[in-house]
Design goal:
The complex is a heterodimer of chains A (243) and B (452). Chain A is mostly helical and 243 residues long. Chain A has a single domain, classed as Phosphate transport system protein phou homolog 2, domain 2 (Methane Monooxygenase Hydroxylase, Chain G, domain 1), CATH 1.20.58.220. Chain A is 80% helix and 1% strand. Chain B has 452 residues and is an all-alpha fold. Chain B has one domain. The two termini of chain B are 17 Å apart. Classes of the chains: A mainly alpha (243), B mainly alpha (452). The interface between A and B is large, with 48 and 66 residues.
């Protein structure tokens, strides 16, 4: 009889989901898969840089409108993932990496997408014609920024493998090497910007001041993307090294 | 309906119920690492768990059961208490027994009733605790309950406080030790295999050593404790060298070697020629080939879980059976096989009725686990639990396993470990023993007033 009533309590215990299995309670969900998911969304944004600059060069305003929609949709989705990651990482969770570094990593990676959206907005709010003499310069910068961001994306996607090897050994060495020259690449994009700026001011008599100001804005937005990618790399390095 | 029947059937039902409860709620933990890493289907996990738990309970159970029967409440203290008391109820108690069974001494009656009350108290506390979602251990509840009635019935002196201290220390030590061993094991795995340039090649080279450890520990535990319990009865007919420690070590080393050679051949066959693939692909391959090992280590955990927790839950029952059969409190009597079997069957039925559903949710919930983590945690837990029960210390398998998992986490092996669980476990530790003790003392008072 006792066993029967005991059985009933145990059934309730199971169905109410309060207890069940202790082992099951130990595990929260890993933040690394969603972090990679976030990285992919950001990369989708970054991949729109080329279409954006091409649309700007050809003064294709409709295309710019469409691309901006696409970028801001992707940026929003990245934001959603970011919030989800933060929500599923309550303080009580023990992580293999420093929570602060992880948080900053996420923040920086999100900034990459923000930079792309800024760039799209700048192109959208004013129909700024890109002077043909400046087109190669802009293309160069975009290529360089793309390279920095893509390298970072490659490194981010390795987070799952990094977690699998507990941020040690060959895989972590490979990733540290991969991101080691992000700083230099970012510096290259800075240099390209300076060169372009010089060109812009060399032609200042031919250009109207508002256009010059918008060229500056475009460059700054692109620079911000490379900058954010570099910072993301720094945070990834901190995660790997510090734990 | 005579008294003996009641005296035996009530604790038997309670002991069975405790085992059932373990089967329904705790067994999933022991197979958790294999199920969580998707190395085995739920259905097969249930079958493997049932077999291993049952074998563990029946073969290895006796050691721990002895501790609960005799370790905490000292038999000699109980005996002394009787002689001094010179209880007038002695005559009545003797007359109440049917022919064919020896009469019960008053201290034996006290002990029998007390052990029954302990089972009842532990069962009640388990219900209350699980109602509030507290992860308490069956083992701890039983220890607390036995201590409670022992204190009341036989006085402070009857409690073997040194043993009690050892037991309490082992509750803290077992998760910590599990954690330390798991940490070291996992670090070694990362250092040699997972962190290597070519994980596939490194696995062929180093993983067999891991198999050796698993094979050695597993075989040693079965030989050292389980089979020795069986061999005890046939000791005369067997040569000494077969039952000695050296023989056990040698046989275990042989089994480990066999595991070494077998796994080497297996890994050679499946992992050769993959050194050129990307690191990520190799890691995945290696983890996949670790799956059979995590199934084996999980079975080890289930085995030692059966050995420990089931034996703990039927320990008081064994004491009662012993008392009823001999009429007094003995100090050297083997645990009847049917008592251990009852525990084993209870666990299997618990698993069959509800445990499989718990198992299914474990499989769904744990996603961060890979076989390598499972192997490290399982092996560490098995070593600690079997070492502790070898020393006669009843520890909680689940808590040891949680400690081991945290150890892997500390080695940066796991993402998102919920630390509230450790806090809850700690809370359970602090209150389970006193509450179970008080509960069993109260029940004992009531029972004595009613029946004696």
């Amino acid at each position: 009889m006792w066993a029967a009533t005991g059985g009933l309590v145990a059934i309730r215990r199971f169905e109410s989901g309060t207890d069940m299995s202790l082992i099951q309670q130990v595990f929260g969900s890993s933040p690394f898969h969603p972090l990679v998911e976030h990285a992919s969304k950001v990369d989708e944004c970054v991949q729109l840089l080329n279409p954006l600059i091409e649309a700007a060069v050809t003064d294709d305003h409709d295309e710019l409108l469409r691309l901006h929609d696409q970028v801001s949709k992707l940026e929003y989705e990245a934001d959603q993932i970011k919030h989800r990651i933060r929500e599923q990482l309550p303080r009580r969770f023990f992580l293999p990496v420093s929570r602060e570094d992880l948080d900053r990593f996420l923040h920086c990676q999100d900034n990459i997408a923000d930079g792309v959206e800024d760039f799209a907005v700048i192109l959208l709010i004013r129909k700024t014609h890109v002077h043909e003499k400046l087109v190669p310069g802009f293309r160069e910068i975009v290529d360089q920024v793309l390279q920095v961001a893509s390298t970072m994306y490659q490194a981010s996607t390795a987070l799952i493998e990094l977690a699998e090897t507990s941020f040690e050994g060959a895989e972590s060495t490979r990733i540290l090497e991969l991101i080691s020259n992000l700083g230099e690449e970012e510096w290259k994009s800075d240099r390209l910007q300076r060169k372009l700026s010089q060109k812009v001011y060399d032609m200042e008599s031919e250009l109207d001041p508002v256009t010059i100001s918008f060229y500056e804005k475009m460059q700054r937005a692109l620079g911000q993307i490379a900058d954010a990618a570099e910072n993301t790399g720094d945070m990834l390095r901190a995660m790997i090294v510090k734990g | 309906m005579d008294g003996t029947w009641l005296l035996l059937s009530v604790p038997a039902v309670l002991g069975f119920y405790m085992a059932w409860n373990i089967g329904a709620n705790d067994v999933a933990n022991s197979m958790g690492c294999a199920v969580g890493s998707k190395s085995i289907t739920i259905r097969n996990a249930v079958i493997a768990a049932a077999i291993c738990e049952f074998l563990g309970a029946v073969f290895v159970g006796a050691h721990v059961t002895d501790t609960i029967r005799k370790g905490i409440v000292r038999p000699e203290a109980v005996g002394i208490a009787v002689k001094e008391a010179g209880d007038p109820t002695e005559q009545n108690a003797a007359e109440a027994q049917p022919a064919g069974r020896p009469p019960l001494t008053p201290s034996a009656v006290k002990l029998a009733i007390g052990m029954t009350c302990s089972l009842l108290a532990a069962a009640i506390w388990l219900h209350v605790a699980s109602y509030f979602g507290m992860p308490v251990s069956t083992t701890h509840a039983i220890i607390g309950a036995v201590t409670g009635f022992g204190l009341l019935a036989f006085g402070v002196d009857a409690i073997n406080w040194a043993k009690m201290g050892e037991i309490v220390a082992s509750w803290f030590l077992s998760p910590i030790l599990g954690g330390v061993i798991a940490f070291v094991l996992f670090k070694l795995m990362v250092g040699t295999i997972l962190g290597s340039q070519t994980p596939a090649r490194a696995a062929i080279q180093f993983a067999p050593f891991l198999s050796f450890v698993v094979g050695f520990v597993m075989t040693l535990s079965i030989l050292w404790k389980g089979l020795q319990h069986l061999l005890q009865e046939h000791r005369e007919s067997l040569p000494d060298w077969l039952t000695g420690d050296a023989a056990c070590l040698a046989i275990s080393a042989g089994a480990g070697l066999l595991a070494f050679i077998g796994s080497r051949a297996y890994l050679r066959r499946h992992l050769t020629g993959h050194s050129a693939s990307s690191t990520a692909d190799q890691l995945e391959l290696v983890e996949r080939r670790f799956a059979p090992l995590v199934v084996i280590t999980s079975c080890c955990v289930a085995f030692s879980h059966g050995a420990n927790d089931v034996a703990n839950s039927v320990g008081p029952l064994a004491a009662v059976v012993d008392i009823v059969n001999t009429g007094e409190v003995q100090s050297q009597v083997p645990v009847p096989m049917w008592v251990l079997s009852l525990g084993g069957i209870g666990i299997v039925i618990g698993l069959a009725t509800y445990g499989y559903r718990v198992m299914a949710t474990v499989g769904e919930k744990i996603t961060a686990l890979t076989p390598s983590r499972g192997i490290a945690a399982d092996t560490a837990a098995t070593i600690v639990v079997l070492a502790c029960s070898r020393m006669g210390l009843p520890v909680s398998t689940t808590h040891t396993l949680v400690g081991s998992i945290l150890g892997v986490g500390l080695a940066r092996g796991l993402a998102g470990i919920d630390l509230t669980v450790t806090r809850n476990i700690f809370g359970g530790w602090l209150i389970t023993v006193p509450i179970a003790a008080i509960l069993s003392a109260v029940l004992y008072l009531i029972a004595m007033a009613l029946f004696v």
